[in-house]
Design goal:
alpha+beta, Glucose Permease (Domain IIA), 3-stranded antiparallel sheet, about 20% strand, binds zinc ion
């Protein structure tokens, strides 16, 4: 094989060196040098490419941040809608609106039914709906309620109620009508509450218990005709005589105000009278002692005296009378 000699001669006084290389070795060295230069160039180019990409990405990131900040500070302009899109949106919103109104009117119908049931229980006439009111503006009350309550219940002169209404199952109910209906229902329920309170007050003022505490008590002489224990003649007994231990408490049978508290010369001895309103009065006679004065407010079960035998009496008992509109009635039905 052909050989090549490379001499390396230093510029100073050092000894020279000789390299004996074959053609193959020289070719190999050249190839290695060329290969290295290509590889270096390739990686250098790649590096430049990466740097460019990183710079580009950095710019994109800054742009996005800027746009985001602008979106936060300024409203995004809405893209223009096509007529078809607008129509579809309108239809969707309309159908959602209709569905919501249908639910509200269904619930209002249920509320009105419950309200009418409650009004029926208290004797109040059913209140009409906006629809009823607007369809018969001259309307009047339905049976059961008083005229004054009906006037409250049917504010048909309200100028706002003018539409030929469209509620409770009818199509296209308007929000205004629903609001009016809610106002009617609210007023009706307020009236119902007032009525219930009045009835509750009425009940607390209705004599409904015995005038003596439970225990040893008995009716010794009922209301009605009997042989008088003093004269032995048939006469009318205006009250109910209830026996109980001497000195035991005598109680008011309902809420009221004391209108009489004196010794009765007519025969009932120590006597207390209580007015309960609505024309109802109760009398408690033959008391051993009276514990209330005229004008005193008493509640049901307030102790008003002690059981005795004063006046025309043959033994310890209470003479209990109930007056309705000035007429003595049988107290038996007020004893429970
Ligand atoms: Zn009597």
């Amino acid at each position: 094989m052909k050989k090549w000699t490379v001499m390396l001669i230093p510029h100073d006084r050092g000894s020279s060196r000789t390299l004996n290389l074959s053609a193959y070795q020289i070719w190999l060295v050249v190839m290695v040098v060329v290969g290295l230069s290509f590889t270096t160039s390739f990686f250098f180019k790649r590096h430049e490419c990466y740097v460019r990409q990183v710079k580009h990405l950095e710019k994109v990131r800054r742009d996005i941040e800027t746009q985001y900040a602008q979106q936060l500070s300024a409203p995004t302009p809405q893209p223009a809608m096509t007529a078809q899109e607008r129509l579809e949106l309108e239809q969707r919103l309309r159908s959602e609106y209709d569905a919501t109104l249908s639910r509200i009117t269904a619930q209002l119908s249920e509320l009105r039914d419950m309200e009418n049931q409650a009004r029926g229980l208290t004797g109040l006439a059913p209140r009409r709906t906006v629809r009823d009111v607007s369809m018969s503006p001259a309307g009047g009350g339905k049976g059961g309620g008083s005229s004054s309550l009906d006037a409250l219940a049917y504010p048909e002169e309200d100028p706002k109620i003018v539409s030929p209404s469209v509620i409770y199952g009818l199509s296209q109910p308007s929000a205004d009508l629903i609001i009016q209906e809610i106002n009617l229902r609210t007023a009706s329920l307020q009236e119902l509450v007032r009525d219930l309170r009045a009835k509750q007050e009425e009940v607390t003022r209705l004599p409904s218990i015995w005038p003596t505490l439970s225990g040893r008590r008995d009716i010794s002489s009922p209301f009605g005709f009997r042989k008088d224990p003093y004269t032995f003649r048939i006469s009318h007994h205006d009250g109910t005589d209830i026996t109980a231990p001497l000195g035991s408490p005598v109680i008011a049978t309902a809420k009221g105000v004391v209108v009489y508290s004196e010794y009765d010369r007519g025969g009932l001895g120590h006597l207390v009278k209580i007015n309960h309103g609505s024309g109802i009065e109760t009398w408690y006679g033959h008391l051993q002692s009276r514990l209330v004065e005229v004008g005193d407010q008493v509640e049901r079960k307030t102790v008003i005296g002690k059981l005795g035998s004063t006046g025309r009496s043959t033994g310890p008992h209470i003479h209990y009378e109930v007056h309705v509109n000035g007429v003595r009635v049988n107290p038996a039905k007020y004893l429970k």
